[in-house]
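Budget justification, computational time. The allocation requested in the original proposal was used primarily to generate structure tokens for proteins on the priority list. As evidence of use, we reproduce two of the resulting records. The first is shown immediately below.
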Amino acid sequence: MSKTILIVDDSASLRQVVAIALKGAGYEVIEAGDGQQGLDALKGQKVHLIVSDVNMPNMDGLSMVTEIKKDPNYKFTPVIMLTTESQEETKKKGKEIGVKAWMVKPFKPEQMLDAVSKLVG
């Protein structure tokens, strides 16, 4: 059975690049345009991994992850932040709330797939 990955980014073109790479590797993909949509997309779905941007309108990625981790169903769901944000302080906060990997844009799809496969197998 294929694994499902939620991509949350306010850039449709970036979501498309990530989705194409993931689908090409055999994953199912759900997309959301901001943190609030990301939370809504999770409702009752089995998601094996989340790839999220940090800076988004309505709800940023770190706030979304904080909310997600409160839900027992997603407490252990791995999260990869894919962002232009590379400040140590932001990364540290991400780690504290449960982010498993941090990738800075622009990124190579192979790098991302490598991180994804390590986290979801």
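The second record produced under the same allocation is shown here.
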Amino acid sequence: MSLFQKIGNIGKIFRQNGGLVGSYLKLFRTDDLKWGTLVGEDKYGNKYFQNDYYFMGRNRWVEYPLSVGHDYDASQVPPEWHRWLQYIADEPPSQLPLPKRKWMADHTENLSGTERCYVPYSTTRPKVEAWVPPKNNL
């Protein structure tokens, strides 16, 4: 690859990521700068990109919306887009959507380790009770 192609690719990266300041902010937020074709967007605001210029395994990626800030993780990707990101499917859901069944639940992210996590409430009495030492009346 020539020097001119490398400079052209750097220009594409800066243009797609919002110029010099936008690229700096994206690099600060995600530790990566890439350029590619927008393949689709899900209902949560995640944007999915592909660029076959990069190696297999690095040529498909997701960019999370700014509304989640720095609190993004892989559980925020719905299953249909997970299939495409992990090369289980060749066509993205924007081109070939999965059939929606009536028994399918809507996608929710994993909230473990957050303040909004699920904590079960038990209404049964415990089977094992704590031992209380007897009081000596000496």
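A brief technical remark on that second record: The CA atoms of residues 53 and 59 lie 7 Å apart.
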